Amino acid sequence: MSKAVEIVGVPMDLGGNRRGVDMGPSAIRYAGLRDRLAGLGYSVRDRGNVRVADRDEGATKGWRDVDAAELRKMGRPWAHHADEIVRVVEDLAKVVAEIERAGSIAIVLGGDHSMAIGTLAGIARGGRRPGVIWMDAHGDSNTPKTSPSGNVHGMPFAVAFGLAADPFPKELRASVDSSSAVLIALRSVDPGEKENIRTAGVTPITMADIDRMGMSAAMEKAIAIASKGDGIHLSLDMDAIDPDEAPGVGTPVRGGLTYREAQLAMEMLAASGKLRSLEIAEVNPILDRENRTAGLAVELVASALGQTIL
């Protein structure tokens, strides 16, 4: 694994209903990410944040004032703030591609999970088609046609598989081979997503599966599948973890990973020697308690990059 890390923030909350995840990158930095990684022997470069328009400034386009059924009659995609989100993830993809070409480890800080469209497209443009471990309470596999809400943070995996088309440009789609991708910690899936996940061929590992097989066996399976790709990319939505441990997320779902299960997952990824990039999504300081969720994010990143007990 490279000992050079490059950080980029995506202060975006356009992908969901709840405000606040745009402050996630600042919260994670404040929790000491840079110092923790430097303490592990990494050379750390922080590239700052990509620019994101604030919806309160009227700089984004959306259709929240139009009924979903009416939009579909008009033949319009049901994807709020799609214009600005596409612009942001295009900018992010350029930065991530540069980091990949430099041979460094990209760490992307969010921000809502729609940013993953740009992260994965950037990795592909940098010359690598990774296996993906998508750790999330949700499937994030809706398309504008199947989404009940039109929230883009529920669509990034479908874009990466190539299932979602308009309004997402072709160059942002199909960045991932679904046969080397895993959804893990899954426990909240929309009806249309279920068929999308089956169609894509991604491997789901639900919380019920983890209850039955244990976290160690679940991660062994996830790593084996993701290892089919060129290195592993970890996309960690902090709502994968139980809200008792990670309260500061936009869409909490009870029954998630415990602290030790999450740590074990990161430790096993580090031990595999195959982790090449990662992103942390959906940290919401407004809903957090004393920056607890951002602090946990820093701990998990450190464990994924080699911090051990002894």
Task: Give an overview in words.
This protein is α/β, with parallel strands linked by helices and 310 residues long. The protein has a single domain (4-304), classed as Ureohydrolase domain (Arginase, Chain A), CATH 3.40.800. 36% of the residues lie in helices and 15% in strands. It is built from 11 helices and 8 strands. It has helices at 24-30, 33-39, 68-74, 82-101, 116-125, 156-161, 191-200, 207-213, 215-226, 259-272, 292-304; strands at residues 4-10, 43-49, 105-110, 131-135, 181-186, 203-206, 232-237, 275-281. The chain has an 8-stranded parallel sheet with strand order 2-1-3-8-7-4-5-6, sandwiched between helices. Strand 7, helix 10 and strand 8 (275-281) form a beta-alpha-beta unit. The longest helix has 20 residues, at 82-101. The radius of gyration is 18 Å and the shape is globular.
The rough form would be described as globular
What helical percentage do the residues reach? 25-40%
| Overall pLDDT | 92
What is the annotated CATH architecture? 3-Layer(aba) Sandwich
In spatial order, strands of the major sheet run 2-1-3-8-7-4-5-6
CATH topology: Arginase, Chain A
Low-confidence stretches: 62-67
Termini separation comes to: 20 Å
Radius of gyration, taken over Cα atoms and rounded to an integer in Å = 18 Å
* H-E string: EHHEHHEHEHEHEHHEHEH
Whole-number count of domains: 1
User: Would you count the extended β strands for me?
Assistant: 8
Q: Any idea what the CATH superfamily is called?
A: Ureohydrolase domain
Query: Beta fraction of the residues?
Result: 15-25%
